[in-house]
Amino acid sequence: MGSTSRHQNCRSSSSGCTCFSIRFSTILTITILFTSVYVFLSTVKRGSEPFSWTKTETGFNGDLRDAKFPWNSLCFGNNFEKLKLAVFSKTWPIGAAPGGMERHAATLYHALAAKGHEIHVFTVPSDRKPHLDIHEGNLHVYFAANDHGSVNCSLAFEIFNSINANGPFDYVHTESVSLPHWRAKMVPNVAVTWHGIWYEIMHSKLFEELAFNSQEKTPRPVGELHEAMPRLVDEIRFFPSYTQHICISKSAGKVLVNIYQLPQRNVHVILNGVDETKFVHDPESGARFRRKHGIPKNVSVVMGVAGRLVRDKGHPLLYEAFSKISRTHTGVYLLVAGSGPWGKRYAELGSNVKVLGALEPSKLSEFYNAIDVFVNPTLRPQGLDLTLMEAMHCGKPVLTPNYPSIVGTVVVNQSFGYTFSPNVESFVDALKSVIKDGPIVLQNKGIACRKHALSMFTASKMADAYERFFLCMKNPRFCQYPLPTDC
Which architecture, in CATH terms, is 283-457? Predict the structure, then answer.
């Protein structure tokens, strides 16, 4: 859908800062380190914190708004009350290129629409090209783009108001700041799902600084790191503009209560899920994929990485670590699925690396089944990459940095894979552990991964949790668990 008027930009406000003294830099660094230690320790500590995440008990009985664990772990029964939901999403996936947040949105809202709820999504196409609006049964997707291809808030709200006039929405949901905080104040019933918060982004910039800039002969000014704290403060101030907050990891939920100081009853954890009917354990499809791409039969371990091949996804770390490993372990193979500037660099590593380019979603399951272990080298400790969950559904263990969001929610113990600190030396040690364990141990870990993924990271469990959340927000009767209809 096009627009004939001048469009409003849809970005959240931020505090600008251009000049910081050495003393401020020192204070900033100390603050980051102390808050990092605090949150890390608080994820380990149990019972003494006011918002302590405990192991989910199958016998939970009470108000879901008091739950201190992911709603995905509960079993919700059939519901006969239907919802009318408005959704604001940054983009809508078109083709093979979209990232995790877009794929999450499409999976969730297709699933909710399939359950009989009326879903209206206000967004733009991920390829930034003109597309017709989508109307598929209960799912309605409205493309409201400005001249730059981003969401035009004014146009989106014109459509929103016209639909709302024909019958009010039960609730409004936004994926992160797709609905800006200054607009959210005008909406009475609004919930936001945070796929990344500035507290975690601050950690990302810290890790990038330590991993890359310190190695350069002439280090660049750490301007981004300087700007992180003011933006964090700005974010903490505007978060109360949203009524309810959904986090996709346990650690983010803890931060919103302990650092952002939001009321416990306004913070909830619902983990992302992937389509369990598309990502399945299928060794035969994996074998075909290996043959198709010429993977030798005598390789000892096949590793795989997928996603955008850019710096902040940690590809410089993987490039350096694998180049060291491949010199002494010639039987190790690396499959690289994705597009980006680091694709050409990986091709320089020789015959033990195969760069596949971006894969269509239908081919990703085959890719996961073709590898022995999935590697995620990301330097972005915010949210949770869907690739980890997809690989686990396909029965593959994972190798990933030891960020609180990951070790507290996905790789909760060593039977699911391997973790490392975000530096080359630790990464190399982890790769050596993978190679030492070999395919048989990796296969056993993969079985455990699949069992865990099916219990927590499915699209159906995610949709059930979101459905119950919105019903609970509409009618407190649905906040009680279990209901007679629950399983």
Answer: 3-Layer(aba) Sandwich (3.40)
